[in-house]
Structures are given as C-alpha cells and as structure tokens.
Amino acid sequence: MGFTVRKEANGVVVISVDGQLIVSNRHELKERVAEAVDFGTRKVLVDFTSTGYIDSSGLGALVSLAKKLREAGGELRLAGLNEDLRTLFELTKLDTLFDISASSDEALRGF
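User: That's the sequence. What structure does it adopt?
Assistant: Structure tokens below.
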C-alpha cells in the first residue's frame, strides 16, 4: 500500500494509489499533493487503477484536495476507478464534483 508520484512532460503530476485510500494514509496523499502545489503544479491526476477501496476519510481528503487546487487555479482529476469505486462516487454524487476518466491516459489527454 502506498503512493507513486510522477510528473508528465505536460506538467501534470500523476499520483497512483496502490491498495486503499483510508484514514491511515489519507494524510500522505494530501502531503504529496501539497508538495506538488508548493512547487507550482496546478494539474494533478490521482490514478486509482491499483486501488480496491476508499473509505469516507479518503473521499473527504479528495474533496479537500480538489478545493485546494481550485483555489490555486488548478484542477484535480481522477482516473482508473473500478466498478465498485465508480458506484461509490455516483451514490455520493462526487462524480459531479470530479472529472473522472476510465484511464490515466484518457485523463492526461483531457488536461
């Protein structure tokens, strides 16, 4: 379980979540995004291709990060949600808050 961070040629920072986004690691995700913003990044993609579960604190962290990026003139996008996670975002209406793509490649083309 952990996070992988890479910066694309177009300046987008991609953070891949491996395992789960839960109460015990949500702060690490927030720190990774905060570091990217501090270094001038305004476009962040969180890739959930290798993620099986997100709890309510993880959802809250994503909402908080989206707000932080918007206030900085940027954008947070999500990609790679499995069917269960996609349903979670639909049931909580968070699919209306985030730009969600099927894959990170698709999301990167949209930035």
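The domain at 2-110 is CATH 3.30.750.24 (Transcription Regulator spoIIAA).
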